[in-house]
Amino acid sequence: MSGKGNGTTPLIEVRNITKYFGSVIALNGVSMAVRAGEVMCLLGDNGAGKSTLIKTLSGVHQQSEGQYLVEGQEVHFDSPRDALDHGIATVYQDLAMIPLLSISRNFFMGSEPTKGRGLFKRFDVKFANRVAKEEMAKMGIDIRDPSQPVGTLSGGERQSVAIARAVYFGAKVLILDEPTAALGVKQAGTVLRYIAQARARNLGVIFITHNPHHAYAVGDKFTILKRGRTFGTFTEDELSREEMVRMMSGVDELDALSHELQEFERTDKLQGEGMMSEVDHALAKSLEESEHLFDPKKDNEHPAQ
Ligand SMILES: Nc1ncnc2c1ncn2[C@@H]1O[C@H](COP(=O)(O)OP(=O)(O)O)[C@@H](O)[C@H]1O
Ligand SMILES: [Mg+2]
Hints:
Blueprint: E1 12-21, E2 24-34, E3 38-43, H1 50-57, E4 65-70, E5 73-74, H2 80-85, E6 88-91, H3 103-107, E7 114-115, E8 122-123, H4 125-138, H5 155-168, E9 173-177, H6 185-200, E10 204-209, H7 212-218, E11 221-226, E12 229-235, H8 241-248, H9 251-263, H10 275-293
Parallel strand pairs: 3-10, 3-11, 6-9, 9-10
Antiparallel strand pairs: 1-2, 1-4, 4-5, 7-8, 11-12
Helix pairs in contact: 4-5, 5-6, 6-10, 7-10, 8-9
The protein binds adenosine-5'-diphosphate (ADP) and magnesium ion.
């Protein structure tokens, strides 16, 4: 099958997983699946279990009960390295990057290309710079000088370095834990466009957010977590924007949103050439309003801009 991959074996799937931290049940019977060329948005309030779920998927935690399958095969990951070896790459909120090192050094961190042998073996700067520049260009970012410190990039651009790196090193599944939470409107838009790019390159993407507007701009499917349980997985047709917000938040927020919701025009499936401009369009209409409704500081310590 082509297109969104319905009917194909999921890249990753969990069945009825639970996760206990002592007596705390962080996940309580969660099932979900992600296929190639699909953006699955994982939604839910703080403490819902989003991070615990993706840490389980990425080998940081092991589930207490339930099954985890990668391309139909049951797996047991002991470490994030195991998950990475299966093509599951996770980009965390606090990116593991060294600000003073160059973009290309950060791009190749842990897998440095070398030239020469023995005592003369050294980091292949030329190769690293060329690849980093090329890979970023594929994501639509023009890095003039890949040897500039990564700390000189904006937050959105740094996210894009992490995403481009994961794609280059063969990720099949990209997991993003609230990549847009600490970003301003424009930079959040940048990151959302990379998510659409990754999907266009047939990756499966799990995009965690507690911002339904960000989710709606790029999501194909939506899994909602609340206090460790799922409400299930929905397509855009099955879950209206109002329902999504109601499931995620309280009545007060819903009231505040209702006016905006009426004005919001849903864009259709974002595909092909029109993809980027439609993402831009959806964001322009939606994001400005959304940033203050869902306080991005709730879930992490970074400042909002
Ligand atoms: N390492 C841990 N030890 C104990 N409790 C944890 C740990 N990680 C998460 N929790 C608890 O599990 C629940 C879900 O947390 P989390 O997955 O971080 O939620 P979210 O990412 O959706 O905000 C919360 O009650 C949290 O306190
Ligand atoms: Mg979290």
